Amino acid sequence: MYTDIVINATPYENRIAVVERGSLLEFHLERPTENGLVGNIYQGKVVRVLPGMQAAFVDIGLDRTGFLYVDDIDTSMSMAQLSQPEASRSAVEAVEKKSVNPAIEDLVKEGQTILVQIAKEPIGSKGARLTCHITLPCRNLVFMPLTDHIGISRKIEDEYIREELRQKIEQLRPEGTGFIVRTVAENVTKAEIEADMEFLLLLWDDIRSNAQRATAPRLIYQDLDLVLRAVRDLFTDSVNELVVDSRSMHERLLNFVVTFAPKLKSRIVFYDSEVPIFDAYGIEVDVARAIDKKVWLRSGGYLIIETTEALTVVDVNTGRYVGKNDLNETIYKTNMEAVKEISYQLRLRNIGGIIIIDFIDMETEQHREELYNAFLKAMSKDKNRVNILKVSEFGLVQMTRKRSSESLSQLMCEPCFYCGGEGIVKSRQTICYEIFRKIYRDNRKAGGKHVTVKVHPHIADTLSQDEAHHLRHLEKTTGKEITVSPVYNLHVHRYEVVWDD
Predict the structure, then answer these.
(1) Which of 205, 194, 204 is nearest to 165 (CA)?
(2) Domain map (residue ranges) of the chain
(3) Closest CA to 44 of 131, 105, 144
(4) Which of 6, 30, 106, 434 makes a 20 to 30 Å CA pair with 175?
């Protein structure tokens, strides 16, 4: 499979595109003013414990406190921290008695310091999701210092290789620690695994040492930036080449890969051309389309993708596609084409959380079953964890996709300053009638014989044309002469009624 990684690096923004067979497969964006936080480790301070939600709010030094759920607290760590001299004897005894499913109030106390890692970026008005289950990724391994477990990537399917890797880890790991073998480690040597493990163990010792000396809230460990993370996680043997348009970033990447994958060094290419790199690869147009609400299908059908605070809704429509034989076949073909496009768009746009897909309703059970199986197959390539329910009688598919960071639209867009992100504004007619009611209501206490209404030009046009007869009727009713004055810098919702002598 022909895959490239294309990096557009500038002082104000780094953009990374994964291109497969000429098509944009993944897009990642990071700005220096908005660096990603997932993976960072903090010495935090518990500021509030909520037994009713079985969660706690932890101050880690960001604008908003982080959210720590009871299942994300490491019991052994809490025991150690509660055993400190300042912890009460009753708190320690409570944890010992409730070792199975302990309550949040028995694990953490307000004012307690606790080592946490960001598992999910702050999104919208929500603070970061925190966890005490620390994980430290490297090229071939993910280290879980507080977990006694060995895991092998599910994408390594050969049972012999899986068992061989498990034995290598068992021989090398310190007792009581955990490691996950990543997909790229399928064919690595024992020496390479040992080198990764040694690095991660030294890193963890350094983190613990810094945490013991730090006062909360304090950043203890900062994960790699987006570009280096992409190289660590995405740059594998299956990638044809990694192309970057910044000479300084090119040198940085060369130095970085020498430490863990020197054989890939020759595949890092510096792009030196007057044509911008994303234009040369045809990526710029795809990125612009990735935030559009409407996505056209090749057949002439289309998708509508809308995100609310709670979930994302994808609506499938036949559009211009009218089919050749009968309605059922037209609907079936549109839905099957939509399956591939939806799986692609979810990954490209990094849409997570609850997702509802409204396929066009199909009458036959066989078609619904084939649609479901096709969707499962299409989503199997997604690296994020997904859970998909069967097609309902209404043609709806409910699913979840793991979300750890903001979607592409959240990164690249902001709420409309007109509608405040609602997606709608009051109609011109509604605003006109609001003005009429205000004039009628204020007429009795206002003096003078003349009224000037200052409005947005669009509203002025409506008042002077479509609502002219109502305006004249209002003049007769109030006995006032009404003048409409357009003001170009007024918000369409804003207006001013001035009573003149």
Answers:
(1) 194
(2) 3-35+225-285, 41-131, 136-221, 292-412, 428-500
(3) 131
(4) 106
∠ CA 169-175-177, rounded to 5°: 70
- Which CATH number describes the domain made up of 136-221? 3.30.230
pLDDT at 91 over 50: no
What pLDDT is stored for residue 270 in this prediction?
A: 94
Burial 108-131 (b: 16+ CB within 10 A, else e): bbeebbbbbbbbbbbbeeebbbbb
CATH topology of domain 41-131: OB fold (Dihydrolipoamide Acetyltransferase, E2P) (2.40.50)
In this predicted model, what pLDDT tens digit does every residue of 31-59 receive, in sequence order?
Answer: 876 667 888 999 999 999 999 889 999 99
Contact by Cβ (8 Å): 356, 392:
no
Q: What is the C-alpha separation between 414 and 405, in angstroms, rounded?
A: 16
Q: Two tokens at 304?
A: 């509508």
CATH architecture label of 428-500: 3-Layer(aba) Sandwich (3.40)
Q: How far apart are alpha carbons 474 and 83 in whole angstroms?
A: 78
Predicted confidence at residue 34, as pLDDT, reads 67
pLDDT at 483: 93
Mean pLDDT of the chain: 86
Q: Residue-wise over 342-366: b if at least 16 C-beta within 10 A, else e?
A: bbbbbbbbbbbbebebbbbebeeee
Which residue type, as a one-letter code, is found at position 263?
K
For 254-269, how does the pLDDT look when each residue is reduced to its tens digit (9 = 90+)?
Answer: 998 887 778 888 999 9
Pairwise CA distance, residues 465 & 221, whole Å: 64
Between β-strands 353-358 and 311-317, what pairing exists: parallel, antiparallel or unpaired? parallel
Question: Do residues 359 and 316 lie in contact, with contact meaning Cβ atoms separated by under 8 Å?
Answer: yes
> What pTM value is reported for the model?
0.74
129-131 and 66-69: which strand pairing? parallel
- Residues 282 and 25 sit within 8 Å (Cβ to Cβ): no
**Between residues 253 and 83, which one has the greater pLDDT?**
253
- Residue 26's Cβ-side half-sphere holds a number of Cα atoms within 13 Å equal to 17
What class does CATH assign to 3-35+225-285? alpha beta
